[in-house]
Amino acid sequence: MKTPLTAALRLAAYAAITFAAVSIAWFAAKSRIETQERNAKIAQFREISPDIDPALLDHPETITIEGQPAQRYTAADGSSYYQTSTYKGYNGEIKLLIGIAPDHKTLLGVRVLAHKETPGLGDKIEARIHPWILQFAGKTLENTRFAVKKDGGDIDSFTGATITPRAVTNQIGSVLRAAQEP
């Protein structure tokens, strides 16, 4: 006959063994996970600038753009890359990577890092789904009004969605303005 104390001790032993096994697995995989995350991030940077030096990721600078935190990475050639978010998407946060040329005026390109926009509609902001995001490369504040056409700007939105393209376009304009500030 088992007493409650014996059952409790057995349960505690199983919990300790399980915790130890999970901890060992996590520590064994930790460096591999970090390496894969770094390689994925480098791949995202290389979608904008194929010749990017991976060492760029070693020295991020935390800055503020319109009251929101962002990361700035500066390349040896003077180009800069901003990892920023807008919370004005239809379903919340949209994380962006924005590359700006050494002149601090010209967009090298933009990629969406993460979002929760509606599949088949708002997810057209992803380059792998739709070429909409590619239109920003080469644009400057001098040659483009960074607003969707519905708001009097130069950027096309896509059919059925205005909130998502508006959020992305406005954030890109904000980052480009911030990049030109001394």
From TrEMBL:
It is found in: Cell inner membrane. One of its GO terms (molecular function) is electron transfer activity. Its EC number is 7.-.-.-. Keywords: Cell inner membrane, Cell membrane, Electron transport, Flavoprotein, FMN, Membrane, Phosphoprotein, Translocase, Transmembrane, Transmembrane helix, Transport. Part of a membrane-bound complex that couples electron transfer with translocation of ions across the membrane. The complex is composed of six subunits: RnfA, RnfB, RnfC, RnfD, RnfE and RnfG. Belongs to the RnfG family. This is Ion-translocating oxidoreductase complex subunit G. It comes from Cardiobacterium hominis (strain ATCC 15826 / DSM 8339 / NCTC 10426 / 6573). The gene is rnfG.
